[in-house]
Amino acid sequence: MVSSSTSTFKAPATRYSRTAIVLHWVLGLAILGLFGVGLYMTSLPFSPARLKLYNWHKWAGITLLALSVVRLLWRATHRPPALPDSIAKAMPAWQHWAHHGTHYAMYALFFLVPLIGWAYSSAAGFPIVVFGVLPLPDFVPVDKALAELIKPFHELSAFALVGLAGLHIAAVLKHQLVDKDGLIGRMLPGGR
């Protein structure tokens, strides 16, 4: 008989890794913060404060893009835990589809929102200089007509991302408050 301490069998993970949890919460809070700042800054009159917020928003967007690359690489190299069988079997097919579809769409928007913002900034003739020291190349050539064409896509994609995040949060609350299945414990720091 082989003892459990010498066995090479490893039980499947039931929780996300510490790195996945940190990336999840940092990116989630950053997305909500960036969205809030974006709404606020567009309502301001032209001023030094508005320009400062636009620059901060662009720096944060590029940082979010870089963290999204890290998150995608982590996800590609570290399989997430499967849904517990009891939860997976209790979910109707449409919830499985919504679960996967929402996650795939959010991952796509993690990249699209900042890339569209970068393209808009470049086309408008406002280069991105990350933290005021690292100039990024223009994503597209300066073209005011192109900038006006791109601008609504940045806004719409940001609203779509926040809408999907809201749907994700609603699903978490449903699992926690209605189903009472403890699914959120897989993504909470510290574990249970």
Describe the structure.
The protein is an all-alpha fold. It has a single domain (18-186), classed as Up-down Bundle (Fumarate Reductase Cytochrome B subunit). It is 67% helix and 2% strand. The chain contains 5 helices and 2 strands; from the N terminus they run H-H-H-H-E-E-H. It has helices spanning 18-42, 48-77, 85-90, 93-123, 144-179; strands spanning 129-130, 134-135. Strands 1-2 form a two-stranded antiparallel sheet. Helix 1 (18-42) crosses helix 5 and helix 4 packs antiparallel against helix 5. The chain starts with 17 loop residues before the first helix and ends in a 13-residue tail after the last helix. The model has no long low-confidence stretch (mean pLDDT 90).
Roughly how many Å is the radius of gyration? 20 Å
Name the beta content range: under 5%
Question: What structural class is derived from the secondary structure elements?
Answer: mainly alpha
Tally of contiguous helical segments: 5
Order of helices and strands: HHHHEEH
Total domain count: 1
- CATH architectural designation: Up-down Bundle
Estimate the global geometry from the Cα principal axes.
Answer: elongated
Uncertain runs? none
Distance between the termini: 31 Å
Lateral arrangement of strands in the main beta sheet: 1-2
CATH class: Mainly Alpha
Q: How would you sum up the major sheet?
A: 2 strands, antiparallel
**What is the number of strand segments?**
2
According to CATH, the fold-level topology is Fumarate Reductase Cytochrome B subunit
Percent range for helical residues? 55-70%
Question: What is the overall pLDDT average?
Answer: 90
